[in-house]
Automatic annotation (TrEMBL):
Annotated transmembrane regions: 333-352, 359-381, 387-411, 432-452, 458-485, 516-537, 851-870, 952-973, 979-1001
UniProt protein name: AcrB/AcrD/AcrF family protein
InterPro entries from the UniProt entry: AcrB_DN_DC_subdom, Acrflvin-R
One GO MF term attached to the UniProt entry: xenobiotic transmembrane transporter activity
Keywords: Membrane, Transmembrane, Transmembrane helix
Cellular component terms (Gene Ontology): plasma membrane
Transmembrane helix recorded as keyword: yes
Length: 1017
């Protein structure tokens, strides 16, 4: 029995399907997790290792190289990069894209084992490497906390209290604080007294180091119990540290007799944060990946509201980014767009097919949408930008199945047939072609959904939702649509005018007959238009992912390498004063020394650097950003000409780095710098659309080193380490342990007073062997300056220098890259050195390469299905010849609107191809069926094409108009324009080109059959 007929004769099962889709969709809507953007796994880990006193080159050679060599033995590793600074190695490991998130924990365990084994061979003085595999954690609820008038200790207690309380919230995975003031205890000897008493700084350090230590003291075991012994409490205040005793030459002195002890801020902190110009620290809250971020955010809001009465007056929490608010607003806006699209589809159907057909098809469409939500919840597919957009992308194909069945059933019933017979005929001859066309439409997106890289992971929900919705639309089209048609469609007496006798159908038939008569002219015209369109496609601007529609943008500020953090902070204060005068600025958060905590998945923070500053600026709307960016850049470049001042928009999707990047790798840093300078000169000469050309090794720094007088120093018993300790005492201070204040550990430094007035060559060095303080100039031959690289980058174990640049806001990276590519690639590269492109070019190339690896399989499946559907070759060839022509309308639409061809536009083009193939299959199948009834070829083509006019036109019209709500969405606008323009032209292709091609392919065989007929008679 035909499925459609059975759905009418056994309506209980169909009604159960309807109710399951409806109520399952309602449950699914409430159960779905919600995100702003789809999650993609950041397959990176960072290994941090300190090597105090070593130069950047030493760190690279003695720390990074052995660790990288061990890590490289892991076959799962794709790329290893490192940033080496004086005393600090930061290695970043990226896992190959073929490994998914579920495999990463085991890989991180393996990575730790490799690093731990390699660490045993590191030089003395190197700290244990710290492996951070939480590098990709996202703290989507991000606040700045201001506490004007409160002490630093109180701010730390506040931060710890807030963190403890928020960690108790259900669904919160982690809470991170940053930017808290860095305090230390400074022990500053009175130099005249300490020298007279012969108290070396080392003696003070030893005395302090054991004052607050925690060591086991054993236990006592009695007859029936065991008593634990603990050491005496250590110094728990600054005054207690002042009273510590120091043993010198058999005498005991108090520390306060020879030194001043004070508590204060570190002069050069790692990071400083301000919110709207006011000192602040940040509070980042991450939700569990299994939780709905909207629900987690609301619970955090409720917890903060409950805590507010306990928070002292003057302390305020300012939201920098609230992911749950953004997600809820974006989801609601998209649901409105979806509802508008469904409403537009139903209105168009009512206008052209009547209200009865509109109810039947519209109800099927609604059930398909809500049923898709049910399956999304079952398969844990979150409701986010991509999955909701997929529903709208699929809208044209969703409604197409129901339109074909409803159209055929309605026409048959008007001809006098019963609803059962009409359903049997309408669905019976189309259900297999529609299924094949539906699977082909799904496979058009398989290349993206099955791509293993970050872009494929980001876009996976598109493939999943389209697959679910299209298969469900086919099931409902051959079950629910016939049943609803049975209830709503009226049976005619068969005596009225023909179903296709209207003026529109007659006009189309006349045009089609003319096209068949002039078929070669039509084909030549289509070929010429298609060729011109492919040429025109080269004129369309190319872009990977579009700018985000979140009203945020960033400022990157970079002073020359070696600038201290205080100077950077002072400069950014001038920018803050300018922003405070602007009415179009809602808020601004300043980060000095490094970037912000990762508060969005697509946000990548800059590495720590005292000469770097960063601002996150929020505006009312995204329309306020471009003029504000222009004005701010003019102000920054005019007011702070000695620095690099750049603004950047937030971009959708994965990626990172500068828009334009070129890398040079080789063994000699001097040669790399020469190549970098040469590349900058070539790029400047080739294009005037490159902004802030720079290289990531930045400027070399001057390093001051004492010249060790070997003979004199060894005679005095002074080692190189003794001189280094004396210099550290005179500058940053010698670490003397930790001061425990509750759960805080505050470092203690013994250092020369800032107001001592002593220069480096006035310092005294303590001789352990002689027990004397020796002037430093007696054991050195002065000081010498040396130029060193203090940012030493490596990539896959090779020193690698990257030249980067920004581009104007009205240009795309692809356009500018095309201008400079040939000139840069023509540069002579010395033997042993290499050049490679990075930036957006590399990201888009890798995404397209990954897509290209999957597409052949998808295309093979699509071709096989089309061949199996017809059990022939000519019909599939006709259909596939239409696909290249689909670009015609796309070119006209994108060039007409000036929009770039983005990754989402590529999705639109794939969707368009699926729609075109689907319509072609149904049309060609109908021609075959009409021919089988005995009509001549030309009349069969005209008759079948006329019967498919309304479904094709309605599917195109509903899809085109259904895309209208997406024209205001920054992420999907280029895709919407691609589908709207392309589908308008594709409808002409289906209705004119497909019949003409069919005639050309089958005319000869028709003539042979006609010639053979008399002979057979």
């Amino acid at each position: 029995m035909n499925i459609a007929r059975a759905s009418i004769e056994k309506p209980l099962l169909t009604w159960l399907l309807i109710l399951a889709s409806l109520f399952g969709g309602i449950w699914g809507f409430n159960a779905l997790g919600r995100l702003e953007d789809p999650a993609f796994t950041i397959k990176n880990a960072v290994i941090a290792t300190s090597y105090p006193g070593a130069s950047a080159a030493q760190v690279a050679r003695e720390v990074s190289e052995p660790l990288e060599s061990a890590i490289q033995q892991m076959g799962e590793v794709d790329t290893i990069t490192s940033v080496n600074r004086p005393g600090q190695s930061l290695i970043e490991v990226e896992i190959k894209s073929t490994y998914d998130g579920t495999e990463l924990p085991d890989l991180w365990t393996k990575l730790r084992a490799k690093v731990r084994d390699a660490a045993r061979g590191l030089p003395e003085g190197v700290s244990a490497p710290f492996v951070n595999d939480g590098f990709g954690d996202v703290f989507g609820l991000y606040y700045a906390v201001t506490a004007d008038g409160y002490s630093d200790a109180e701010k730390h207690r506040l931060a710890n209290w807030l963190r403890r309380e928020l960690l108790t919230v259900d669904g919160v995975a982690d809470v991170e604080t940053a930017g808290l003031p860095e305090e230390a205890i400074f022990v500053e000897p009175e130099l005249a007294l300490s020298v007279n008493q012969n108290v070396a700084p080392a003696a003070m350090v030893n005395s302090i180091a054991t004052a607050n230590s925690v060591v086991p003291a054993g236990s006592l075991t009695g007859a029936r119990n065991r008593t634990i012994l603990q050491g005496a409490d250590g110094s728990d205040s600054v005054s207690a540290i002042s009273g510590l005793a120091i043993g010198v030459s058999g005498e005991v002195l108090n520390l306060a007799d020879v030194a001043r002890v004070r508590r204060g801020r570190v002069e050069d902190p790692d990071m400083m944060v301000r919110f709207n110009g006011q000192e602040a620290f940040t509070l980042g809250i991450a939700g569990l990946s299994s939780e709905n971020i909207v629900d987690v955010g609301k619970r955090v809001d409720a917890k903060l509201a409950a805590l507010m009465p306990s928070i002292p007056q003057g302390i305020e929490l300012h939201p920098i980014y609230q992911q749950h608010v953004v997600v809820e607003a974006a989801s609601n806006a998209f649901l409105v767009n979806l509802a508008m699209s469904v409403g537009i589809v139903v209105a168009v159907l009512a206008l052209f097919m009547g209200w009865r057909a509109a109810v039947v098809v519209g109800s099927t469409l609604l059930l398909t949408v809500v049923g898709t939500l049910f399956f999304m919840a079952l398969f844990s597919i979150e409701m986010e930008r991509i999955s909701l957009g997929a529903l709208i992308i699929a809208m044209g194909m969703l409604v197409d199945n129901a339109i074909v069945v409803a159209e055929g059933m309605q026409i048959s019933m008007r001809g006098g047939r019963s609803s059962r017979a009409a359903a049997d005929e309408a669905a019976g001859k189309t259900q297999i072609p529609l299924l094949g066309a539906t699977v082909i439409g799904i496979m058009a997106f398989a290349g993206i959904g099955l791509s293993p890289d970050a872009t494929g992971e980001f876009m996976f929900s598109l493939f999943a939702v389209i697959g679910i919705s299209l298969l469900l639309s086919w099931v409902l089209a051959i079950t629910v649509t016939p049943l609803l048609g049975h209830y709503f469609f009226k049976r005619g007496d068969g005596r009225g005018a023909g179903a296709y006798d209207g003026p529109v159908f007659r006009a189309y038939a006349s045009v089609l007959r003319g096209a068949l008569a002039a078929r070669w002219i039509v084909l030549l015209a289509l070929l010429a238009i298609t060729a011109a369109s492919f040429v025109g496609f080269g004129q369309i601007r190319q872009q990977f992912f579009p700018d985000s529609n979140t009203p945020l943008f960033f400022v990157h500020y970079k002073l020359p390498q070696g600038t201290d953090i205080a100077t950077t902070a002072e400069d950014l204060a001038r920018v803050e004063d300018w922003l405070a005068q602007r009415d179009d600025v809602v808020s601004y958060t300043t980060f000095v020394g490094q970037g912000a905590t990762r508060f969005m998945l697509t946000y990548a923070a800059q590495k720590p650097n005292p000469s770097y500053g960063h601002l996150i600026i929020r505006t009312q709307t995204i329309d306020d950003i471009p003029p504000l960016q222009d004005a701010l850049e003019r102000f920054g470049r005019e007011t702070l000409p000695g620095a690099e001042f750049r603004t950047r928009r937030l971009v959708f999707g994965p990626g990172g780095g500068d828009p334009i990047e070129v890398r040079f790798a080789g063994s000699d840093p001097a040669v790399l710098r020469q190549l970098g300078e040469q590349a900058i000169a070539v790029m400047e000469r080739t294009s005037d659309e490159l902004i802030d050309l720079r290289q990531n090794w930045r400027e070399p720094e001057l390093v001051l080193k004492p010249v060790y007088a070997t003979d004199r120093a060894q005679s005095a018993g002074i080692s190189r380490d003794d001189i280094a300790n004396a210099l550290r005492f005179a500058t940053d201070g010698v670490s003397a342990g930790m001061f425990r204040e509750g759960e805080r550990l505050i470092p203690i430094y013994v250092k020369q007073p800032d107001d001592s007035g002593l220069k480096l060559d006035d310092q005294l060095v303590y001789s352990e062997s002689g027990g004397l303080l020796v002037p430093i100039d007696q054991v050195t031959d002065g000081f010498a300056f040396e130029v060193q690289d203090t940012l030493y980058h490596r990539r896959n174990r090779l020193p690698t220098l990257t030249v980067g640049a920004d581009i104007p806001g009205d240009r795309t990276a692809a356009e500018v890259h095309a201008q400079i590519r040939n000139a840069v690639e023509a540069m002579p590269i010395p033997e042993g050195y290499s050049m490679a492109w990075g930036g957006e070019y590399e990201s888009s190339t890798e995404a397209q390469r990954s897509l290209g690896q999957q597409l052949p399989i998808s295309l093979l499946v699509m071709v096989l299905i089309s061949v199996l559907l017809f059990n022939a070759l000519r019909q599939p060839i006709i259909i596939w010849l239409l696909v290249p022509m689909s670009v015609n309308g796309v070119v006209l639409a994108l060039l007409g609107t000036g929009l770039p061809f983005t990754f989402t536009a590529l999705l639109g083009l794939l969707s368009l191809s699926g729609m075109l193939i689907k319509n072609g299959i149904v049309l060609v199948e109908e021609i075959d069926l009409v021919r089988a009834e005995g009509l001549p070829l030309r009349e069969a083509i005209v008759t079948a094409s006329t019967s498919r006019l309304r479904p094709v036109v309605l599917a195109a019209a509903t899809t085109i108009l259904g895309m209208a709500p997406l024209l205001t969405d920054a992420f999907f606008v280029s895709m919407a324009v691609t589908i709207m323009g392309g589908l308008a032209f594709a409808s002409v292709l289906t209705l004119i080109a497909a019949p003409v091609l069919y005639y050309v392919f089958f005319a000869r065989s028709e003539r042979r059959q006609a010639a053979a007929a008399p002979l057979a008679a």
